[in-house]
Amino acid sequence: MNQNPHLRPSKTAVLLLNLGTPSAPTPKAVRAYLKEFLSDPRVVEIPRFIWWFILNGIILPIRSSASAKKYASIWLPQLGSPLMHYSRLQAKELQEKFANEGHTVLVDLAMRYGKPSTQEVLENLKAEGMERLLLLPLYPQYSATTTASSFDEVFQVLRTWRNQPELRLVKHYHDNPAYIAALRDQVLSSWDKDGRPDFAGGDRLVMSFHGLPKRNLMKGDPYHCECLKTGRLLGEALGLDSNQCIVTFQSRFGKAEWLKPYTAPTLEKLAKEGCQRVDVFCPGFPADCLETLEEIAMEARESFLERGGKDYRYIPCLNSNPKWIEALSDIAYTHLLGWPLGSESPEELAKRHERAEFVKNQS
């Protein structure tokens, strides 16, 4: 016999939202993931009829096998997808931080594409008594292609619910002081381990963000400006001037112009000009993934060294850095202000039970 939903303890939940990952580094799994991802009109703003033929006739048949090999090169033994592993770890550690501070807050992770799906996770939270929901995207810089798309998917699920939760959204936190401090700590930790670059001698810190078509910027997407601000704040926090650190954009796809400067050509240019060492960091990616581990840590390294560079250092993403978990907590607490962060007391639950019984007897 199902418990009356009105008599369950009312809970607050924080849902971390991330992009997604194939379930396995195989052509079949990658094809399924790419099809879902590239079919999103928020991601590819090309007329659907034209794009359907391009996607299914050219991109999926060609890219699925090639991408599967790339995923296989970064797949973690026993752990699987790095993005999934670190995203789940962030959710787990955020949940534990709430618990250690005396709060009963549900924390979970949903992927926009693939598993765990937004619908699956929301239904699970609902079953646990979730009545208040904070959406916290793992995209520090807002873009319609990521943040808005993830919000769209949540709205699509909630529109089918009769009894919807209270809802709050974290749009962005590209300039949040705790986030910037976590980025600074990650870079300094790497330098403590591997040595600080010789900036006076021409070494550089390259901050590579995921790219977008330039038309997205022209249509009003704030992503480009937010990436530049994150880069500027991080450079200032590290005590660097504008000549010592460079913001670039990676993962360009297709023939259209994307946000510039492009990461790979910038690294090649630095090597040709005599730059001996570059440290490359990806501040917009809270968790390592294909774009950071294969594209930046492997491909970009090879390109830089082949063109005369001597020392290439990849700085891992925030992953499970304690400062990053503190930042996530800080961001969450700011947006949870005024909401109860624990289950109802026995007295409060008893009062709600009395109210529900009264309504039942009046009907």
TrEMBL record:
Its EC number is 4.98.1.1. One of its GO terms (cellular component) is cytoplasm. Its main location: cytoplasm. It catalyses: heme b + 2 H(+) = protoporphyrin IX + Fe(2+); Fe-coproporphyrin III + 2 H(+) = coproporphyrin III + Fe(2+). Fe(2+) binds at H210, E291. One of its GO terms (biological process) is heme biosynthetic process. Pathway: Porphyrin-containing compound metabolism; protoheme biosynthesis; protoheme from protoporphyrin-IX: step 1/1. Pfam families: Ferrochelatase (PF00762). Gene3D superfamilies: 3.40.50.1400. Keywords: Cytoplasm, Heme biosynthesis, Iron, Lyase, Metal-binding, Porphyrin biosynthesis. It is found in: Cytoplasm. The keyword Metal-binding applies. GO terms for molecular function: ferrochelatase activity; metal ion binding. It is an enzyme of class 4 (lyase). InterPro entries: Ferrochelatase, Ferrochelatase_C, Ferrochelatase_N. HAMAP family: Ferrochelatase. Belongs to the ferrochelatase family. Catalyzes the ferrous insertion into protoporphyrin IX. This is Ferrochelatase. The lineage of its organism: Bacteria, Pseudomonadati, Pseudomonadota, Betaproteobacteria, Burkholderiales.
